[in-house]
Design brief:
Helices cover 17% and strands 36% of the residues. The protein has three helices and 14 strands. The protein has helices at residues 3-22, 29-41, 118-121, and strands at 55-57, 62-72, 75-84, 91-93, 98-106, 124-131, 134-142, 149-151, 158-159, 164-168, 172-179, 183-184, 191-192, 198-201. Strand 2 and strand 3 form a beta hairpin. Helix 1 (3-22) runs antiparallel to helix 2. It is elongated, with a radius of gyration of 18 Å. Mean pLDDT is 86; it is low at 212-218.
Length: 218
C-alpha cells in the first residue's frame, strides 16, 4: 500500500473515535467507511512485468479511451490514452526500461481527463525515458478530481520496465506516445493494468513516447 493510504486512513479513524466518544457512536460509521475507502484506494498490488523485447507497458490501470496519431518533436507518432477512474489502482509505472532524460511539470486546468484537450491543457507531468528500444515520453495528467501528481524519480535515474515511479491521486489519465510502426496490442475500450499490460511493441531502435508524464505536483 502507498503510505498516503495510512495518512488518510488514520486521520479518518481518529475523526471516527472523536465523534463516537464525544458525540454519538452512530456518527463514527461514516468516517470509518471513508478510512476503509482510502486504505483500499491506495492499494499497490504486485504485477507480473512482461519480458517481451521492445514491450511498452501501460503506465497505469484503467480503460483505453483513445488511440490516435500525433506529432512529437516533428515525428509522426501514435498516442494511447488510458483513463483512470476513482476505482482503479493509481500507482504509476514506467512504460519501458531506461534512463530518465527529462522531467517537466506543467501547471494547467483540471478539466475532464477523457477530453481530447486535456492532453495539452490539463495540469500534467511529462517524463522522457531513453532505453534500448528508443526514447519514450509519458504523461501523468490530472483530471476533474485529481489535484496532486506525484513523481518519485529525477533526471539521471535508471528505471526498469514496470517500475513504480509515482501516482496521481483520485482519478486521472496517462498518455503513451510512440513512433508509427510499433505494433499496437490494445484497442479502444480495453481495460489495462499498470506494469503488466503491453500497449505496444516497439521496433528495434525505434523512438517511443509515453504520455504519462512524471514529476511531482507541488
Amino acid at each position: 500500500m502507498v503510505r498516503d493510504g495510512y495518512y488518510y486512513g488514520l486521520a479518518f479513524v481518529a475523526v471516527a473515535v472523536l465523534l463516537g466518544w464525544f458525540v454519538h457512536p452512530v456518527l463514527a460509521v461514516f468516517p470509518l467507511l471513508l478510512a476503509l475507502f482510502f486504505l483500499w484506494f491506495f492499494r499497490d498490488p504486485e504485477r507480473q512485468i512482461p519480458a517481451t523485447e521492445g514491450a511498452i507497458v501501460s503506465p497505469g490501470d484503467g480503460k483505453v479511451t483513445d488511440i490516435s496519431s500525433v506529432a512529437q518533436n516533428g515525428e509522426s507518432c501514435t498516442r494511447i490514452s488510458v483513463f483512470l477512474n476513482v476505482f482503479n489502482v493509481h500507482v504509476n509505472r514506467s512504460p519501458i526500461a531506461g534512463v530518465i532524460t527529462d522531467v517537466k511539470y506543467k501547471r494547467g486546468k483540471f478539466g475532464n481527463a477523457k477530453g481530447a484537450i486535456s492532453a495539452e491543457e490539463n495540469e500534467q507531468n511529462v517524463v522522457t525515458v531513453r532505453g534500448d528500444a528508443g526514447t519514450v515520453v509519458f504523461k501523468q495528467i490530472a483530471g476533474l478530481i485529481a489535484r496532486r501528481i506525484v513523481f518519485n524519480k529525477k533526471v539521471g535515474d535508471s528505471v526498469a520496465r514496470g517500475e513504480r515511479v509515482g501516482l496521481i491521486k483520485f482519478g486521472s489519465r496517462v498518455d503513451v506516445i510512440f513512433p508509427v510502426g510499433s505494433e499496437i496490442k490494445v484497442k479502444v475500450g480495453d481495460h489495462v493494468a499498470g506494469g503488466s499490460s503491453v500497449l505496444a511493441v516497439a521496433q528495434a531502435r525505434s523512438v517511443v513516447t509515453s504520455s504519462h508524464t512524471a514529476a511531482e505536483a507541488r
